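Quick one - inputs below.
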Amino acid sequence: MYDVLIIGAGVIGGMVARTLAKYDLKICILEKENDVAMGATKANSAIVHAGFDAKEGSLKARLNIKGSAMMESVCKELGVKYKNNGSLVIGFNDDDRATIEELKKRGDKGGVPALRVLEKDELLTLEPNLSRNVTCALYAPSGAIVCPYKLTVAAIGNAMDNGAELICNFPVTDIEKIDGGFMVKSGEKSVSSRYVINCAGLFSDKIAAMVGDESFSVHPRRGEYILLDKECGGILNHTVFRTPSKMGKGILVSPTVDGNLLLGPTSVDIEDKDDKTTTAEGFQKIIKEANENVNGLDIRKTITSFCGLRAVGSTGDFIINSPVPHFINAAGIESPGLSASPAIAMYIESLLRESGLMLNEKSDYEPTRPAMHRFREASIQEKNEIIKKDRAYGKIVCRCETVTEGEILEAIRRNPKPRDLDGVKRRTRAQMGRCQGGFCGPYIVELLAREQNIPFEDVTKSGGNSYINLGKTKEAAKND
Amino acid sequence: MDRKLTCIVCPLGCSMVAEVENGKVLSVSGNTCPRGKAYAESECINPQRVVTSTVRCQDGSMLSVKTDRAIPKEKMAECMEIIASARPQLPIFVGDVIIKDVFGSDIIATQNRS
Amino acid sequence: MTDLVIIGGGPAGMSAAIAAYECGIRDILILERDEHLGGILQQCIHNGFGLHKFSEELTGPEYAYRYEKRVIELGIPYKLGTMVLDITKDKVITATNAEDGVFQINAKAIILAMGCRERAKGALNIAGSRPAGIYSAGTAQKFVNMKGYMPGRDVVILGSGDIGLIMARRMTLEGAKVHAVCELMPYSSGLARNIEQCLNDFSIPLKTSHTVTEIHGKERLTGVTIARVDENRKPIPETSEFIPCDTLLLSVGLIPENELSRSMGVDLSGITSGATVDQDRQTSIEGVFACGNVLHVHDLVDFVSEEAEIAGKAAAEYINGMVETTVNIPIKTDGKIRYTVPQVITKSKDVTVFFRVSDVYKNVKITVKSGDDVIVSKKKVRVAPGEMESIKLRASDIEKRKELIFSLEVV
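Output:
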């Protein structure tokens, strides 16, 4: 029997696991997919919001401001890149200006540091590639960017290094109340625990319903993105939002911590929680609006386009509560969920403490997780030191992103271990460059097969039936 | 009867017309060189193709091979089946015969493997 | 200090090295990122290589072996598994491999011969899901020919580049069913012989003016929607058709790999995505040459080898101090001629200028002019973007010209 089961290995589940891992508790994370960070965590704007967006007094507002303030030190401990690049909400007319003034007031009240309204000249000096039609902007120096899936991998890895367990491919199908806790089932399999924390993202309403809580629902909102080559990354330094209007929040343009440029998201409510398709209309909207905001975007430099589904809760705020004893919801965690995640984890810790869970600190708790080796960013001397220890760090596998075999093996061997090509990609950036794995993909398949001791043709792109190869040559010709 | 053909002998890919009567090629036009004419004649009467493929060696590695001359086009699938069953021993050098006499051609290695 | 460092040990790099050796240069080093010489030829197991150079039809590995053998016979040093990380303007090369770690070399001359890569799916922004089963044709070629695995059984190919056509045949022979090859343009960019022997031989339909508009399937690809496109290359929704398949191969163009060239400050052409060069294939940086697919994408490896010989010879002359710039004649083009290589002539000697046209034209006259003087003109029945053309200029044609203009008119 576990002390705490966390359902969902996204950024919320990961942060909760890591926060609780410092205590003397038996923790297990259950994930329905083949890897961690596979839901909304994988595909969002990757922004640490300053905290002026959400309504005053809401959980969203409170936890955003608190979480953002914690984020830099959390990233430092977890060895994850964090860049405090600042954000701009740009306006084009008087209506926008009025909204910007209002956002500033709200932010000031909530405690967002150093907000300032910039006029056109100062704005264009700060970001010369912005559209000449801008009239003003809200400048938030505390805005930052982070890689959400690397943060999650690191948080869960750190929790696992401190004793937490992770079970993938465990879609929860039922929860039964048992003596002293819950039995959580996935088909024939089951695990039991004294406490259950529901961090199931889009599916958190279904999980809550399994313990009889039908007080809320979560629906998917499609957000499509286009990611541009690093060649384009230098166009902007700040994250650039459009002023929110009746038409929504609009398309943002932001550098990423790894030096690409991200455009998006669209915002369309849909029905199917598994429908991560991109659309031609979505691409058109992103391209049109991004070009209205920023000059000089070259869409031909697209590396990839993708779709994420935001988990929009029916209450309009984060739903963090305990509907039945020993069961805690962390549901409806849409934007600014990433920014708020460290604070959400602390909030859940306090709820657990209130409900009587004994939280005794472990003596051997290790809060830091050493950063992955990043060959590309190391000096020649550092590179040679690590190659001396392990020659695999001298061999480049991914040419586009300069990722070595050493880094790929390090990722494959480290908690939480990736089992598929996309898992390696998210951890190392191998296959994430211009050729999208065209050159290095087959070799990474080989490394994954070898390290996991599975046949070459059993390697998948992202678990399930997503096989890369469908058999050997010389066989079909013989069988037909 | 006129038959339209695209020459596959070289990258020029000439468009040719062959005049065929009772299984005999009377004339070829559109070709740039004599090899084109020869191809057109063969293509109308007994089409032939070189087959390139791979064999799985004893150590499991793949080795590229080809028929050392063109074989009848309709025998390509059969040729592939024969190639599929080969399991040659290493070392192998470019030009080594892997399988003898497959529809009048030898299957030879196009790579070294030691 | 090394006399000549060649970045890339494919057909261009090996050919350049041999040419430089034959001009007396002995201090040469080839740096190759793969574990073998020959570059991408090793996975191009089909035949059709070498007709120009050797007057026989070789497969890719055989063609590569002819050069590899020569490199070894001559004792030209090379390092495999070695990735160049950086080159400076002063020709300091930083590279890494598992044996030596990270090392630096000062070179007197450098030949860039890094080849090209395939345009990836990301650049296409196709709507739909992102399942497994979508590969560039070259990646599929690597799986099938080098690894011995089948990336799919029911295949649709987008783009009719030669690698796509070759893979249509290859996968068919290995037992897969290729349902269609879709080409956005009204004509194929592949060679006519490949359409004949790779598609027609197997009754694989080539759908010109068609594209893939949507990708279906959550885990593994389950099908694609294709549609006809109008003259502006926009899909016509009423012509949409769903084709069930487990694999989509992309053969939608090749891009010279010039990240190193760009970061060292070599001037690049916006049209070829390769360096701008003179008749010796010297780039905007003195002593730095480029040849093969890193300079511009070639149709035939034979022409890659020839171009590399020019670069190798010129690099040798540069190393031996035989540099003499006598003229400076830029080559310009009208819209119908897309680009030329070289883009500038700096020596009064016989020069063959290679060029591509920007569309399919029939019954054309290609003219090289200087001012109002017609220097050369040439008639062709048909020209297409997929087929590289060339015109030979004599030293006497070039002398005293201010610029040369290549133009095409339909007659």
